[in-house]
Amino acid sequence: MDASDTHLLLTLLEKQPVAALSTLHQGEPAGSMVPFALLPGGRGFVIHVSRLAAHTGDLIANPAVGLLVIATPDATTSPLALPRVSVQGRARLCPPEDPAYAEARSCYLAKLPQSEGLFSFQDFSLVVIEPQTFRFVAGFGRALTISAEQFAGLSRA
């Protein structure tokens, strides 16, 4: 992975506010949208979910999840050429008593400060998605798979 692709991948994940979350719902694939933030050092993705949402029950029942982050489309770029990354990982609840909670909350609110009010809702919980593999498409003919360890080595923080 060259420096240009590394910069593109990290910028995509740092700047895009939402991802498509894939879970298994009653044994069938299901997709939803979630705001997300990165933990330092590429250790994981933080989402803040409501127990009222089907995807929350899904990821508790089966923590194997996927995240898809896509660059913002514009009128001059073919949708097939948009940079994107698909992340396969394992989700785990991160309750307030978890030692990782303060850092996860801080990272989430640093990226999504407008979400602070949701932390007062009792049905919302932080979830950390620990990545296993990344499939990064930087554009036509520029795709590669990287491990969580390789991603951690690329991360800026």
TrEMBL record:
Against InterPro entries, the record matches this protein to: HutZ, Pyridox_Oxase_N, Split_barrel_FMN-bd
Where does the source fall among the domains of life? Bacteria
Name the record gives this protein: Pyridoxamine 5'-phosphate oxidase
Provide the transmembrane region boundaries.
Answer: none
Can you list the GO cellular component terms from the UniProt entry?
A: cytoplasm
Domain Pyridoxamine 5'-phosphate oxidase N-terminal residues, every copy: 10-137
Q: Name one Pfam family in it.
A: PNPOx_N
